[in-house]
Amino acid sequence: MHVPDGFLSLPASLATGVVAAAGVGLALRGARRELDERTSPLAGLVAAFVFAAQMLNFPVAAGTSGHLLGGALAAVLVGPWTATLCLTVVLAVQALLFADGGVTALGTNIVLMGLVGVWVGWGAFVAVRRVLPQRPASAAPAASVGGLLSVPAAAAVFALLFGVAGTVPVPLDVVVGAMVGVHVLIGLGEAVITGLVVSAVVAVRPDLVYGARPLLQRPAVPSERVPA
Questions:
Q1: With the C-alpha atoms ordered 128, 129, 134, 139, is the resulting torsion angle positive or negative?
Q2: 169: number of CA atoms within 13 Å, CB side?
Q3: Which of 44, 66, 68, 218 matches a 20 to 30 Å C-alpha distance to 227?
Q4: Domain boundaries, the chain
Q5: Contact by Cβ (8 Å): 110, 91
């Protein structure tokens, strides 16, 4: 999913850079409402986990491999705004220090994984969470659906960008079919990893999972006794 330099025209790369900068600016403001004494340390751990997990590839089909994008996972664990910041840091370090994704394509990669991946994953998670039983364990399957949908969504956006501003003339339907088809399979792996990680954290500390907090049962307030 990491877009290298030269795949999109310079104007398109600049445009996605502007969109990415605006998204990160909004995330800096929105994260203030999500971060507290519990989520602040977890945000660093989530960024480190996503960074490490993206280094591990799993086979998909016909010599194709995939890796965790982590947008939905990060959004469920620490909130979507904070997740956007986590993915931005991960992508910036990968591009600048490890040449994983182009420097001129950094804005594009942030848009695809830090914005589309995070927010499609979060939106799907919230929608599924509403229809599942209102208990913390429901966060894991809802997160799996978010992870599954976030990957082909990011791939579809890239395909549209490449169809409009790609440096190689390839028919749009060919790009969309190839990208979305493969990334649906990658999304299955994303769903499994996301569900397992969220399930493990919920089993130990459900209060640390941002997306599971609305599902926690609040203790009943004891009624005041009226003295006889």
A1: positive
A2: 0
A3: 218
A4: 10-214
A5: yes
3-state secondary structure of 139: helix
pTM for the whole thing? Answer: 0.88
Identify the H or E element spanning 65: strand 64-66
pLDDT digits (tens, 9 = 90+) for 19-49: 999 999 999 999 998 988 777 888 999 999 9
pLDDT at 219: 46
Q: Are 109 and 5 in contact (CB under 8 A)?
A: no
Q: Any idea which residue has 């420097």 for tokens?
A: 103
DSSP of 171-204: -HHHHHHHHHHHHHHHHHHHHHHHHHHHHHHHHH
How far is residue 181 CA from its own chain's centroid? 19
- Over residues 98-150, the pLDDT tens digits come to 888 889 999 999 999 999 999 999 999 999 999 999 999 999 999 999 999 99
Instruction: Indicate if the pLDDT at residue 74 is higher than 80.
Output: yes
Question: Which of 186, 191, 168 has its CA nearest to residue 73?
Answer: 191
Task: Match domain 10-214 to its CATH number in 2.60.120.20, 3.40.50.300, 1.10.10.10, 1.10.1760.20.
Answer: 1.10.1760.20
